[in-house]
Design goal:
With 128 residues, this protein is mainly α. It folds into two domains: 77 residues, no CATH class; 50 residues, no CATH class. It is built from six helices and two strands, in the order E-E-H-H-H-H-H-H. The protein has a two-stranded antiparallel ribbon. Strand 1 and strand 2 form a beta hairpin. The chain starts with 8 loop residues before the first strand and ends with a helix. It binds zinc ion.
């Protein structure tokens, strides 16, 4: 059975070149996240690795590399300043998503990951 949503993106290595292949049927925001994730692997100089574990036939996974790439993807797509501006209510979520080309999930993840929500809440509490 073909699952059109199953594949997001991957980096294919051809000697010293990295070629990003991605699923262009995903939303623009998801494609942006998928491609940026692959670029993050490149910026972090993660070495090529087999896509499948030959022993199990399952997808090979380096959790540390994926965590690093996920973190850098968020850093590249949503600045701390924008996460804080949204958390403070200075920029509407829809405006931020439109301006940055990111999904609601990515924006919320960055607001949480940067501590912007807690910071805005502290500021709000201390001004009363
Ligand atoms: Zn990855």
């Amino acid at each position: 059975m073909i699952e059109p949503d199953a594949f997001s993106a991957a980096t294919v290595f051809e000697r010293h070149k990295r070629i990003v292949v991605h699923n262009d049927t995903h939303s623009a925001a998801r494609q942006s996240s998928n491609v940026t994730h692959e670029l993050a692997h490149g910026l972090l100089l993660h070495p090529p690795a087999p896509a499948l574990d030959t022993a199990t036939g399952c997808r090979a996974w380096n959790a540390d590399h994926e965590d690093e790439a996920n973190w850098l993807t968020g850093e590249l797509l949503v600045t701390r300043e924008m996460a804080l501006a949204v958390a403070r209510g200075k920029v509407a979520r829809d405006d931020a998503m439109d301006r940055l080309g990111v999904s609601q999930q990515m924006l919320q993840w960055r607001i949480n990951a940067t501590g912007a929500a807690q910071r805005a809440a502290r500021e709000n509490g201390s001004s009363r």
